[in-house]
Specification:
Helices cover 25% and strands 29% of the residues. Helix 3 (97-110) crosses helix 4 (118-131) and helix 6 (269-280) crosses helix 8. The chain has helices spanning 21-28, 70-74, 97-110, 118-131, 207-222, 269-280, 292-301, 338-351; strands at residues 11-12, 40-47, 51-59, 77-79, 82-86, 92-95, 143-152, 164-174, 185-190, 227-231, 239-242, 246-251, 256-258, 285-287, 304-311, 315-324, 327-330, 362-365. The chain is of the alpha+beta class. Strands 1, 2, 3, 4, 5, 6, 7, 8 and 18 form a nine-stranded mixed sheet that branches. Strands 9, 10, 11, 12, 13, 14, 15, 16 and 17 form a nine-stranded mixed sheet that branches. The structure holds pyridoxal-5'-phosphate.
């Protein structure tokens, strides 16, 4: 469903009632995650026959939604998560945004939704960040989280792909994802619920995957854990990923293992970037299946030294404690390990413009 859309021109309509400066700065003093929103949103509409049209950046406002809107019934919805950073030398940058644009279309194909030309995705994000440049918070761990998403908006109850969609980007200034800051997280191994099955939607960034993971996440909270880790659906044996983060294991010989992509794991951009950074440091990185039984045994024998989770929102989070129905264990004495810290610093150094961006991963938004 490649839309044959001519180049879109965005209508820019600045918000006539933006949040007063003093209120914004006050809110910046205590940033959470995803609770505060900028003044604008970018919107592009799609309809069958017409393709993508009506691109605009306008005041953030609710969408009127008909009770028969198909997203409410069949959950045709996908999203992305990315961040705009203010570097230490004052530039506004995005990290590998073309990867998000590309993955968005892979998700769109899986969900039978129209693809959005990558340049339109990037332009929507960039135009929004330009208009909301003052919403990029400064300081350690702070950024403007960007949420591009698309949903089916046709009013129709039949079961088939919608003939109308809305693409939108909203922005939320955020602080660190986990309240504990850089403290290692505790995770709950879901032995009952799974996230994604072969042939399913595990590799697509769709809201439905998250809907299905929430009961397991709730179980994790009930067990006193920060996050849930899922095992594979076929054998309930192989470690796959967290609800919204990929997972890595670090061994005593210095090698690293991360579960392989293959349809049931979300291909994280943080995952891919960390694999590159580690390999450039001479670290052996295996993308291979790793079972929960091996994990337990390797912790007991001392072979496994560190484990961490990664994603755009939380960046890199050491896993300190692992709980499962029959017991629990600690990794690295529940502390941040040296390899985890080194990889996090290498990645954050690039994102914050503090180290040489030798891969050309930063996309600078000029003039803001
Ligand atoms: C978004 C996401 C990730 C992390 O991807 P990044 O591109 O690194 O942010 C990992 N797992 C799931 C399920 C996700 O939705």
């Amino acid at each position: 469903m490649q839309a044959e859309t001519p180049r879109l021109t965005f209508d820019i309509k600045p918000n006539t009632n933006p949040m007063p400066e003093a209120d914004r700065l006050k809110a910046f003093e205590n940033l959470g995650f995803g609770t505060l929103f900028s003044d604008h949103m970018a919107v592009i509409r799609w309809s069958e026959g017409k393709g993508w049209h009506s691109a605009e950046v306008t005041a953030r406002a609710p969408f009127p939604i008909d009770p028969a809107s198909s997203v409410l019934h069949y959950a045709q919805e996908i999203f992305e998560g990315m961040k705009a950073y203010r570097t230490s030398d004052g530039r506004a940058v995005l990290f590998r945004p073309e990867q998000n644009a590309h993955r968005f279309n892979e998700s769109a194909r899986r969900m039978a939704m129209p693809e959005l030309p990558e340049e339109a995705f990037l332009e929507a994000v960039e135009k929004l960040v330009r208009l909301d440049a003052k919403w990029i918070p400064k300081g350690d761990g702070a950024s403007l989280y960007l949420r591009p998403f698309m949903f089916a908006s046709e009013n129709f109850l039949g079961v088939r792909p919608s003939k109308e969609y809305i693409f939108c980007v909203i922005a939320s200034p955020v602080g660190p994802y986990f309240k504990g800051g850089a403290k290692p997280v505790s995770i709950w191994v879901s032995e009952h619920y799974t996230r994604a099955a072969p042939g399913g939607t595990g590799a697509a960034k769709c809201g439905g995957n998250y809907a299905a993971s929430l009961v397991a996440q709730a179980e994790a909270y009930a067990k006193g854990c920060d996050q849930v880790v899922f095992l594979d659906a076929a054998e309930h044996k192989w470690v796959e990923e967290l609800g919204g983060m990929n997972v890595f294991f670090v061994f005593e010989d210095g090698s690293i293992v991360t579960p392989p992509l293959g349809g049931t794991i979300l291909p994280g951009i943080t995952r891919k970037s960390l694999i590159s950074l580690a390999r450039e440091e001479g670290v052996t990185v295996h993308e291979k299946p790793y079972s929960f039984e091996e994990w337990k045994a390797d912790v007991a024998s001392g072979k496994l030294k560190e484990a961490f989770a990664c994603g755009t929102a939380a960046v890199v989070a050491a896993i300190g404690t692992v709980k499962y129905p029959e017991g629990e264990f600690q990794i690295g004495g529940g502390q941040n390990g040296p390899v985890t810290t080194k990889l996090r610093d290498a990645l954050v150094g690039i994102q914050r413009g503090q180290s040489n961006d030798r891969h050309g991963w930063l996309h600078v938004i000029d003039g803001i």
